[in-house]
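Page 37, continued from 36.
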C-alpha cells in the first residue's frame, strides 16, 4: 500500500508538472505567434490581349501574312505579367516581376528583380534587373503608356535591353524639388544588336527630368495620369557604351480642364550614333489625346492621335530609309491603367521598300 500510494502521489505530481509545462509552452507559443510578423508583400498581375486585322503586314501584332496572301487576322495574347513586391524594412525593399511574352515567343522571363534601397527623396539606390534611365516611353512601358502601340514607330523605347527593355545593373536616383536625377551603370554584354564593337564594356545611362507642375515621384513614370495630375515635364536622357551613344529629349503636358475633360500633348526626339543600329539614325514623334469628362456606362472615352518618323542614314552598303507611322485610338477608360479597352488603327510606310502596312484591332488591358 505504501508503495502504491507513493506511486500515485508521484504520478499526480508528474501529471501536474506536465500540465504546467504544457500550459507554459502554449502561452509562450501564443506570445511567439503574436510577435511573429512577416514583411508586407503585394502581389498583382497584368494582361494585354487583342484582336487584329493586318493588311500587307502586321505592325503591332506578332502575326505574319502567309505566302501568297495579302492579309491576316486573329487573336493575340500580347503580354501577361505577374508582380510581387515587399518591404524588408522601411528603407529596404524588393521587387520581382515576370512576363509571359505572349503569342510572339511563348516564353516566361524574369522582367524585374530589384533590390531597392530607398532612404529619402534625394538618395535611393536600385540594384538588379530593371529599366535603365531612358526616354519616357521606356520608363512607362506598354502598361503605363496611353497609346495602345507606343513602340511601333521605333522612336519611343529605342534604347537597348536584355529583357523587356531591362538590363542588369545599379542606379542612383533622387528628387531635388522639381528636378529628378537618374544615373546608372549596366552590364551591357547581352544587349540586343552587335553594333557596338566591344559590348563587354559597361553601359552607362542617365536621365534628368524637370516637372514644373505636379511632381512624378518614384523611379518609373507614366505616359498619362488621366487627369489625376497636371503635368508639365521635360526630360533629357543619354546612354553610352564603348564610345557609341544615343540620346533623346521628351516632353509631356497634361491638363485637366475643370469639367471639360483632360488634354494631353507629348513629343520626343531621338538621336542614335551607333548604339542600337549599324548607321546613325534619328526620329521624332508627337501625340495628342483628349479624355472626355462624361462617364458613359462604367468609363470615359478618349480620342488619341500620334505620328512618328524615324530616319536611318545611308552607309557604304545600305541606302537611307525613312519609316512613317500613324496611330489612332478610340479608348474606353474604365479604371485608368487597370481596366481599359481600345480600338486602334495603324498605318506604317517604309520609303526604302516602298511598302505600306495597315492594321486594325481591338485591345484589352487589365491589371490587379
Amino acid at each position: 500500500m505504501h508503495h502504491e500510494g507513493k506511486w500515485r502521489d508521484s504520478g499526480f505530481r508528474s501529471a501536474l508538472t506536465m500540465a504546467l509545462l504544457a500550459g507554459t509552452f502554449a502561452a509562450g507559443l501564443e506570445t511567439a505567434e503574436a510577435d511573429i510578423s512577416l514583411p508586407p508583400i503585394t502581389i498583382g498581375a497584368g494582361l494585354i490581349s487583342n484582336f487584329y486585322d493586318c493588311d500587307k503586314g502586321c505592325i503591332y501584332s506578332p502575326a505574319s501574312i502567309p505566302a501568297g496572301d495579302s492579309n491576316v487576322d486573329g487573336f493575340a495574347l500580347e503580354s501577361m505579367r505577374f508582380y510581387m513586391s515587399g518591404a524588408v524594412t522601411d528603407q529596404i525593399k524588393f521587387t520581382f516581376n515576370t512576363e509571359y511574352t505572349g503569342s510572339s515567343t511563348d516564353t516566361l522571363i524574369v522582367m524585374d528583380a530589384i533590390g531597392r534601397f530607398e532612404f529619402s527623396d534625394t538618395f535611393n539606390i536600385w540594384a538588379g534587373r530593371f529599366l535603365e534611365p531612358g526616354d519616357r516611353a521606356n520608363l512607362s512601358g506598354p502598361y503605363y503608356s496611353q497609346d495602345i502601340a507606343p513602340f511601333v514607330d521605333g522612336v519611343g523605347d529605342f534604347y537597348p535591353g536584355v529583357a523587356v527593355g531591362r538590363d542588369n545593373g545599379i542606379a542612383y536616383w533622387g528628387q531635388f524639388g522639381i528636378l529628378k536625377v537618374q544615373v546608372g551603370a549596366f552590364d551591357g554584354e547581352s544587349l540586343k544588336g552587335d553594333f557596338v564593337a566591344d559590348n563587354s564594356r559597361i553601359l552607362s545611362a542617365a536621365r534628368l527630368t524637370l516637372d514644373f507642375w505636379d511632381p512624378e515621384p518614384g523611379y518609373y513614370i507614366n505616359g498619362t495620369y488621366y487627369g489625376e495630375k497636371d503635368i508639365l515635364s521635360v526630360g533629357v536622357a543619354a546612354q553610352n557604351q564603348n564610345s557609341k551613344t544615343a540620346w533623346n529629349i521628351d516632353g509631356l503636358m497634361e491638363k485637366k480642364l475643370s469639367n471639360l475633360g483632360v488634354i494631353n500633348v507629348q513629343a520626343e526626339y531621338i538621336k542614335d550614333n551607333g548604339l542600337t543600329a549599324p548607321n546613325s539614325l534619328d526620329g521624332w514623334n508627337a501625340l495628342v489625346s483628349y479624355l472626355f469628362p462624361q462617364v458613359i456606362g462604367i468609363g470615359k472615352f478618349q480620342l488619341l492621335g500620334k505620328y512618328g518618323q524615324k530616319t536611318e542614314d545611308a552607309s557604304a552598303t545600305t541606302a537611307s530609309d525613312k519609316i512613317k507611322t500613324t496611330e489612332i485610338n478610340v479608348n474606353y477608360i474604365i479604371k485608368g491603367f487597370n481596366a481599359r479597352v481600345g480600338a486602334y488603327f495603324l498605318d506604317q510606310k517604309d520609303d526604302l521598300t516602298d511598302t505600306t502596312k495597315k492594321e486594325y484591332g481591338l485591345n484589352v488591358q487589365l491589371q490587379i
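The domain at 42-367 is CATH 2.40.160.10 (Porin). Flag for discussion at group meeting. The chain has a mean pLDDT of 89.
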